Amino acid sequence: MQPTTPLVLCVLLSQALLLTSAEDLDCAPGFQQKLLRINQPAEFIEDQAILNLTFSDCKGNDKLHYEVSSPYFKVNNDGSLVALRNITAVGKTLFVHARTPHAEDMAELVIVGGKDIRGSLQDIFKFERTSPVPRQKRSIVVSPILIPENQRQPFPRDVGKVVDSDRPEGSKFRLTGKGVDQEPKGIFRINENTGSVSVTRNLDRETIATYQLLVETIDVSGRTLEGPVPLEVIVIDQNDNRPIFQEGPYVGHVMEGSPTGTTVMRMTAFDADDPATDNALLRYNIRQQTPDKPSPNMFYIDPEKGDIVTVVSPALLDRETLENPKYELIIEAQDMAGLDVGLTGTATATIMIDDKNDHSPKFTKKEFQATVEEGAVGVIVNLTVEDKDDPATGAWRAAYTIINGNPGQSFEIHTNPQTNEGMLSVVKPLDYEISAFHTLLIKVENEDPLVPDVSYGPSSTATVHITVLDVNEGPVFHPDPMMVTKQEHISVGSVLLTVNATDPDSLQHQTIRYSVYKDPAGWLNINPINGTVDTTAVLDRESPFVHNSVYTALFLAIDSGSPPATGTGTLLVTLEDVNDNAPFIYPTVAEVCDDAKNLSVVILGASDKDLHPNTDPFKFEIHKPTVPDKVWKISKINNTHALVSLLQNLNKANYHLPIMVTDSGKPPMTNITDLRVQVCSCKNSKVDCNTAGAPHFSATAVLLLSFFSLARL
């Protein structure tokens, strides 16, 4: 294999990167000569000019800056390229990058006879590399291709060339990768014979910043002869994106009276251009402030960080004296480090001046007057205050306290949330006869504490004078309710008690008359003068108007005022029981089969409306004068039940059996009730009582029902 000579892929930038939208037709911005050659000297001498470069941005070259791909060289302001120290080997190629705010361009210096020292152009100019360039010796040697984005027609245009002097005859170049034969396809292509690399359309760095391609040589059959060798295409940024504020809305808060230089908020914008270039280097400023009082420059924004701070004295930042506590700032972000040629974007910052409790509430007057009728409750007066703080905050909302004059807790005060007034109320009725006047001392404070240098003064307390008006109050019964115990059935006209009512209006010396208000059974009468209550009918404990042995009646006491006032008293009469009710039996009808083997007829129960001891134990008997012997039998089961049974079977018919039941009262009371017994025909599980003229109840059913009633007792 013959030794090969390293070849250089020459990157020719055919147009300057214009940073303004208009072109100067008489001037072509950039290097006048983009490809230069010098012979490799024995040594580059420090500070000795090697050659002169000529660059123009057609705008006077203001702020012209050069960068050299080798750290051992620099370009002076006059365009002379010099070495920074004595050096021999620097490689075969140097790149010089020139930039002003208006244009930028790159020139290539080929050192003929120079020794190959590989270095990446992106390391010098801060381009991102995604794959390193192999450093082994090969016949295809490539360097990155730099292409400005947003190039104009015509297309395709050459951007570089691969030359291989050791390439066999008939071999061809082949280019592959994303942007060639992979999506996005067809952006780059290579002349298979000459090795010229061309771009077919304009590029967008913000879409794809670099393309990683592969170059190789192939024979006529498509077999790879050498390679593939990585070829990196770097899209050079142009300033084609405006700064954008993405995080709005922007709302900041600053406390009133804050020191000068207090940070309110930070606003930052985003620029899609290359962050390593001035195209994305942003500067901030305030374009407009609304309102512009008390100063048109209330705030300042750090041009680099975007921090908004206060610049006025704390005295001017007084919420209570401001025309409007809300400020709106139009913030502008400009790229190109804020130069006039930079693109701009704006956003609105809203700044709220927050209130602090630097004003104490003050009563609108020192003394308030109120009147209230005795016995009434509710709000009697609204206390008004003034506070200059923000009504939407606890620095304005008032809290009232009664600090003197309320020993009986008859008064309360609450804050009206809409008006901030203090609503003074009577919560326990006042008595004119006890006190006709009351004096309260009330203080007002804020919900939030005051700032340290502000305190509550004399205006934060007020006196309330309350006059109680006398009204004609109704008489009051003593006691209420009134209670008395009597036996039922006492004689008509018996005195139950004498009621007593007094008039609270002791200073008026009024007389009192009595009357019956509610007497459900109509049993009572009251003397209108002295209040004696007597009976007009017999009192019956078993009456439906009596509940749990207690009869309730209401009486009125009416004074002689104008108009008269009325008081109501309740009388509770507890009635003691007497044995005035005879017991009764149940059931009073029974059935039995004419051929029954079980001669039990029915279980009888007894009940009495009276109370113990005038009830059970009951005595059950058959009233014998009307009943033949040796047919019926009655047996005691317990204090309240007995069993009636037959001593022999009877023919089908209706029988009436007189049952006598007696209670345990003293004296006792007796009741005789006929028990109707139906003797029925019972054949083939059918009960026939028709001949007997009785209801169709079986004796068995009656017995079961009776036993159930007994079990419940």
Can you put this structure into words, describing what you see?
- The chain is an all-beta fold and 713 residues long.
- It has six domains: 83 residues, Immunoglobulin-like, CATH 2.60.40; 97 residues, Immunoglobulin-like, CATH 2.60.40.60; 111 residues, Immunoglobulin-like (Sandwich); 108 residues, Cadherins (Immunoglobulin-like, Sandwich), CATH 2.60.40; 101 residues, Cadherins (Immunoglobulin-like, Sandwich); 105 residues, Cadherins (Immunoglobulin-like, Sandwich), CATH 2.60.40.
- 3% of the residues lie in helices and 41% in strands.
- The protein contains two helices and 52 strands.
- The strands form 15 sheets. Strands 2, 4, 7, 10 and 11 form a five-stranded mixed sheet that branches. Strands 45, 47, 50, 51 and 52 form a five-stranded mixed sheet that branches. A four-stranded antiparallel sheet has the order 1-13-16-15, with no helix packed on it.
- The longest helix has 14 residues.
